[in-house]
Amino acid sequence: MAKLKAAVVQLRSGINMEANIAAMEELVRAAAADGADYVQTPEMTGLVQQSRTDFFKSVVAPEVDPVTKAAGKLALELSIHLHIGSTPVRLGDETAANRAYLFDPDGLLVASYDKIHMFDVDLDNGESWRESAVYEPGNRGVIADVLGVSMGLSICYDCRFPELYTQYARAGVEILTGPSCFTRQTGQAHWHVLLRSRAIENGAYMIAAAQGGDHEDGRETFGHSLIIDPWGKVIAEVAGEEPGYAIAEIDTAAVASARGKIPNLVNNRSFSISHAGRDEESAA
Hints:
By secondary structure, this protein is of the alpha/beta class. It has helices spanning about 15-35, 50-60, 65-80, 160-170, 185-200, 255-260, 265, 280-284; strands at about 5-10, 40, 80-90, 95-105, 110-115, 120, 130, 140-145, 150-155, 175, 205-210, 210-215, 220, 225-230, 235, 245-250.
């Protein structure tokens, strides 16, 4: 069994990457000073910019990205695992990746993950998003080790696709992650219930840092960064939408306990589906 102290950092990133890095660094330092071994920032830590033209004026290739360079230095300085929940990096003239990065206490990059599921939705009140118009989706889940604890990486909209987290749990993952830039509209309806469900289904911790508030580009995000235990209890939360951080102790004994009480990962059975009233030929 292993223990670590985890923190979620809540930001209100805007259209200026340097200002976003400075805001990230201030809160990561505060969380580390409070004893955090692992600190997670939200999706789109480095840039929240709706204008496609201005977006591609700011986004650069991964090897020269200023967010990741700053994060590696900060992880080394503070001797922590620093998880940049995501930041956009350029892949081509008109394409980018929504990419998460995990740095170890030596400042070394130990894992990266590209968001698999694109947020292409049409919501009430005319709110509409098409991430696939800008981002190249990822095609692989990623598991990393943090202080002897197995962690599965994901980003925001991924949380609506339970099969990703079930595969992680079956592979032994003890901490699920869900850094997000959740819209206020969908967050009010679904944020807590989705993340608690993923934790409960898999008997795993869920750590989800979030963006919060009214952003410079007009985006409205829900905040409420969370750490949830394997029984589905919220054990740390940044209440509301203001920037800040929350911290909690992770103890993998709680994972073993939850999975021992309700071993649904073991009890799961394969099955087929038939349509009542149809014969095999018509069903085919």
